[in-house]
Each structure stands twice: as structure tokens, then as C-alpha cells.
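Researcher: Checking consistency across runs. Here is Thioesterase again:
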Amino acid sequence: MALKILRRLIPDWGTTYGPPGEGPFPAIMIFHGSEGAWSGWSHRNAVILAAHGFLAFPFGYSNGGNAWNAGNIVNVPLDRTVDALAALRAFPATAEKVGLYGVSRGAEHALLAASLMARDGVGGLPDAIAAHSPPDVICGAFDGRKWRDAGDPGWQSWDPGQRAWSWRGSTDELLPSTPIEIERFEGPLFLSHGTADQVWSVDMTRRLADRLHRHGRRPEVHYYDGQDHIPGSAAENEHHERLIAFFERNLTS
């Protein structure tokens, strides 16, 4: 039996998942959340996209970690993200257009990297971006080893003494609560959020959408009524239908 999804390695960067054949295929770079690169969620999302004709690249950006530990999001260099995006574009199985898809901290990562690339005139901008459960501002550093549930002794939303991201060797412009200027990105945007999100309020996506509209942008926005940070089965099926349709429209034409 011939495999319907194949793994292909981008040397020095990691594995991709995509349809059989030589391609090239429209590609999507996937960003995990605070669960870290080892959790498998971004690979699972990659396989779903691969089953629908995309070359999907789960980009593991978190520091350290293993199968039992999420690692951390501390001073993650967004310049490395730009290099990984360039490597995906140069990969022989990649077609002309490349999108980004992030969930939670991965959504923050995708929006922030694209906004900085647009601001500074960096070439190779993504052709489309999808962000599920995104924040509208930069969030603080995260270390899975120190995480505590709300109400536990020592709980705090993040460490105010550390920064999550760096750009061109500096964290000075990437302080927590700084707005993510995704309005600088002129390409297609997909935003989605559960209205009962208990991790990051749906108001974050509403503020993003409002700010984009004020700048003349027209993002595709979906709210999933009664859904938490990660949708349940029926809502997730609905989400994937909309997500795949968005990327088909914007990466295959």
C-alpha cells in the first residue's frame, strides 16, 4: 500500500509532512504553543494539513525540553524563524507560496515575526497567516519547569524579569504588553478564537480585528461560540474546514 503522507527532511531544520509525489506543494510553517516542540501537537496539525495537499513544516522553536518537559520560551530569536522560513521556501518540494499557522503562543510567534519582517523590510514574507487563539500583545517568557496552575503557591502569569522573544539580538522592543503590529502585514490573515477561552480572552482577537479594520485590513475572523482555548471535536472540525479553505484560496491560486 502506498503511503498517503510522506515525511521529508529539510536538512538542519527538521521534518515536513506532505502528499506523495515530487510536488512542489503549497507549504505551511506551523508554530507550536507553550506545550513545546516535543509535545506532538504541531506534528499532529501538520499531518492534518498534509492530508489536504499541503507540505507542512512543524517548526520547533522552544528551548530545551524533552518528551516529559515543555522546555521554555525565553529569548527565542525571531531571526532564526526568518531563516527557517527561507529554508522552507528553498526546499525542492515547496511551491511558490508559503503560509504560517500558529496556535496560542505559536499564533503570537507567527504574528510577531511577520510584523517585524514587514516593519523592517525583510524579504520572504509569508503569503498568508492563520492564527488561532492569538494574543494582541507580546506576552512574557514561559518556562514549563516553573509552571503552576492559577491558585497554586508561586503562580504568576509570567516572569516579568524575562523576555519571550528577541529580534536582531535585542529584546528592548519586545517587552510584554507591547501591541503586535500585524497591521503592517498586507497579506491575507485568518483569525479565530473560542468565545469561552479560559487561557487568553477572546477579547484579544476582537481587539486585533478592530485594529486591523481601522488600518484598512480585512482579516477573515471566526469566533467559536462556547469553545475554550482548544475547540472540542465538532468545533475543531469546523475550524479545520475553514482553515484549509483559507489556505487553499491563498496558497494554491
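Researcher: Does this match what you'd expect to see?
Model: One thing to look at in this run: The CA atoms of residues 61 and 189 lie 22 Å apart.
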